[in-house]
């Protein structure tokens, strides 16, 4: 399917069941045609296989032996875990995740070529297993220095700081790679709000500490945020002046504090010591 066709398609699946949640969907997703007459789909919350009927899911749950996403656990902090799933080694899981995610993503083309992606799946874990909260995907090799392709927090878990956690995580991976990164465009409204919030908080905290004596290049080296994104964030906060052919960053502590307050909650932090990961080769 071309992007344009996806846009114009009417929504097919109205609801899904996933773990203990029933969730209303937001957008069209190109499930195989045999699912098109289906108002509700039943997902196995662990392998993400989907079925038309509750009884099929119940039968499936008796024999499905997964209790977490099919990949390596690369981060654990309290009950939160992050799993890295290689789309090449787990093609069906990758495809299922894309079908599921598209239900909540509007202007994104769905990639069937899941081979080329890694999926970072965030879970809340308890004695029944690791329950998916959200995820982001990342190209194994990006020409455009993208460090994130698609990001999703499942609706029952939204507005609790998981989105900012996932964004922070994507930059921690970039730091370990020694590269700067940027999210794939276009961003949705909610995506832009979340990124703007993350960039603002991270940059203002550094500016406060360094009392402004720092360049955009240095900010970029410290945070793995691409220079363009730093510039646009600081410009949107009206913190950049152009003097004698150079960008000058305003660092009036009062102004910075005012912006920091407005930037909202910090949310869940990534504890980098708990990230056990080496870059994909
Ligand atoms: N209304 C207003 N502001 C919002 C809302 C909302 N419904 N949701 C998030 N925000 C803003 C807020 O500023 C919020 O910070 P605050 O709570 O401190 O005020 C900030 O975004 C981030 O909130 P989180 O709780 O950390 O983020 P969440 O877990 O809700 O996830 C996400 C954000 C991933 C964008 C989620 O809304 C989502 O999955 N949306 C659907 C899919 C999507 O649009 N993804 C991005 C596409 S772009 C891309 O993939 C590159
Ligand atoms: Zn299953």
Automatic annotation (TrEMBL):
Domain MYST-type HAT stretches: 8-279
Catalytic residue list: 184
Class of the enzyme per the UniProt entry, highest EC level: transferase
One BP annotation, GO: DNA repair
Record field: catalytic activity: L-lysyl-[protein] + acetyl-CoA = N(6)-acetyl-L-lysyl-[protein] + CoA + H(+)
Family of this protein: Belongs to the MYST (SAS/MOZ) family.
Name of the protein: Histone acetyltransferase
Part of the whole protein covered: 160 to 440 of 443
